[in-house]
Amino acid sequence: MSEQKSHTWLWILLGCGAFFVLLIAVLALVGLVAGRHNSEFAGFGDKIGVVDLEGVIIEPQTMVRQLKEFGDDDSIKAIIIHINTPGGGAAASQEIYAEVRRIRDEKKKKIVCSVESVGASGGYYVASGTDKIYADSASIVGSIGVISQWLNYEDLLKWAKLKDVTFKAGALKDTGNPAREMTPEEKIYFQGLIDDMHQQFIQAVADGRKLKVDEVKKIADGRVWTGRQALSLKLVDKLGDFEMAVEETAKSVGIKGEPVLVHPEKHRRTLLDVIFGDLSDILPAQSKLLDTHRGFYYLWK
User: Fold this and answer.
1) Which one of 121, 128, 139, 143 is the catalytic residue?
2) Closest by Cα among 188, 190, 185 to 149
3) Residue 21 and which of 87, 102, 224, 265 are 20 to 30 A apart at CA?
4) Exposure of 119 in the CB half-sphere (CA atoms within 13 A)
């Protein structure tokens, strides 16, 4: 091959390489822009923010951040929380509820929820803070209660001839130790915590739904209802699906025609996430940790 042909092929290879790099950069940029607000560039007009609350509620930060961004964005005329959750951590549910009430009471922005399959316990706690609750007739809602449970392996230790060794300062410091039975005093102490959290739940529902506390107490025994049953109990406002929630919410805030639905940016995991610490996709689901972790939950099981 002549020297001239070698130079020609070299330039061709360099050109192809540069084009490939440019193509990758353009695709990455398009993906980044599209990922920011999924429907933001789908059209013009007034927008409704849609936030999904799905699965067991483990941490509140993501949901609170999404709600706050929509609440502070003047281009977002209303917010719809699309709920499909059995609940989760007590405090985590309360933090999301608090942000919902801030948007509703302080920002004076319309915020409603649409319950898909399940909106129970902590999920209903959050829903009760919105302006209006939509649910399908066969949706599961309610479960106003608190639960805390874990395994006791005292007999297993005895069988294996193992002994639990615990040092503590404070008589109730190791209350709930799974290696031994709870004392009567510990049971009273734990039940007191649960009862107080239950009262907080009842008060939150009463405040959010504008009901009397005694009305909520009568039905706050942990049971769930279908959407149709919950309607007569004033736990939901209307039977209808997500599309109805969108249509009626748009009209209520003066949006004419079909509104633009805006979804929060979704985090896209990369190889770097795995290398530098984001192992959420390969570790056991966080909801499974509730089976072994001692805690207090607004959770329907």
Assistant:
1) 121
2) 190
3) 265
4) 29
Residue 200 CA to residue 298 CA, distance in Å, equals 11
pLDDT band at residue 36, thresholds of 50, 70 and 90?
Answer: very low
3-state secondary structure string, 210-249? CCCHHHHHHHCCCCEEEHHHHHHCCCCCEECCHHHHHHHH
117 Cβ neighbours under 8 A, 6+ residues apart? 84, 139, 140
CB atoms within 10 A of CB 32: 11
Please report which residue ranges of the chain form alpha helices under DSSP H: 3-36, 61-72, 90-101, 122-127, 154-159, 184-209, 213-219, 227-232, 242-252, 271-275
User: Which residue in 158, 168, 173, 212 is the catalytic one?
Assistant: 173
Model pLDDT, residue 257: 85
Residue 23 is encoded by which pair of tokens? 């193509």
Closest CA to 105 of 123, 80, 129, 124: 129
Give per-residue pLDDT as tens, 179-212. Answer: 999 999 999 999 999 999 999 999 999 999 999 9
* Inter-residue contact 116 to 165 (CB < 8 Å): no
Residues facing 80 on adjacent strands: 50, 112
pLDDT, averaged across the chain: 84
d(CA 100, CA 111): 7
Cα distance between residue 55 and residue 53, in whole Å: 7
Query: Where does 37-139 have alpha helices with state H?
Result: 61-72, 90-101, 122-127
121 is an active site residue: yes
Share of the chain above pLDDT 90, in %: 63
Cβ-contact 66, 51 below 8 angstroms? yes
Active site residue 173: yes
